[in-house]
Design a protein that fits this description.
The chain is an all-alpha fold. It has one domain. About 80% of the residues lie in helices and about 0% in strands. The longest helix has about 35 residues.
Length: about 240
């Protein structure tokens, strides 16, 4: 299944057919989960005893922050596949992820600032978690800018992919920043699966939102990468047939 699947779906027509079938399932399921999670987080979850209703912004902040990192990891992995196997499909996926990842990182930063203002008394501090997340946004923007600035497609793919791969080192820094340094940002709450620092009534909408964001992300990348593949393969007979 492993390498055979990679080779099979590394073929542009096979990849295109697969993602166009997968997209609507992920889109509708993701939107359904986001709707359920939003209702649970905004209306069903109890108030936090310290933060009151202000804590409810976590139902948008945490999923976008998780997705900003997950998307970058996926972009880096696709870039590695692209360079090793010289795969146009992998490069298409990596390029498609960058704008959405940058958007999720921006949302994570903005929602964090909205939460930080009433909780910390300031919207921004050069905290380790905030700073490393901001660096993640710069990495996304650097990838996008570099790719757009090089006219030759293959050279643009390779150069931007190196940025994506080197930037992976920032992901563990973001994750462990609250452990390695004294920061204002609270420690992990749901990654401690044996004893999460959040009660079940607040936890389940958050988990539903994270999963919903993930499915929505897959749907968006299916749409964007299929369009990118068509653009790159526009002279191919299978594209003309479509």
């Amino acid at each position: 299944m492993g390498l055979k699947a990679i080779y099979k779906y590394g073929s542009p027509p096979n990849f295109y057919r697969f993602v166009t079938r997968l997209e609507p399932w992920c889109l509708y399921f993701g939107l359904l989960l986001i709707l359920i999670g939003s209702a649970g987080g905004l209306f069903l979850a109890p108030k936090d005893y310290q933060m009151g209703d202000a804590f409810r912004i976590i139902y948008f902040h945490v999923p976008s922050a998780y997705l900003s990192m997950s998307a970058y990891a996926a972009m880096g992995f696709a870039s590695i596949i692209g360079i090793v196997w010289r795969s146009n499909v992998a490069f298409s996926v990596a390029k498609s992820i960058a704008p959405f990842g940058a958007l999720m990182t921006t949302i994570a930063l903005l929602t964090g600032m909205l939460w930080g203002k009433p909780m910390w008394g300031t919207a921004w501090v050069w905290d380790a978690r905030l700073t490393s997340e901001f660096i993640l946004l710069l990495l996304y923007l650097g990838y996008i800018t570099l790719h757009a600035s090089i006219r030759e497609q293959k050279k643009a793919d390779r150069s931007a992919s190196l940025v994506a791969i080197l930037g992976i080192i920032n992901l563990p820094i973001i994750h462990y920043s609250v452990v390695w340094w004294n920061t204002l940002h609270q420690a992990s709450t749901i990654s401690k699966l044996d004893s999460p620092s959040i009660v079940g009534e607040m936890l389940w909408p958050l988990l539903v939102m994270i999963i919903g964001y993930m499915f929505f992300f897959v749907a968006v990348i299916c749409r964007a990468s299929s369009a990118e593949v068509l653009k790159r393969e526009k002279r191919s007979s299978w594209v003309k047939a479509i």
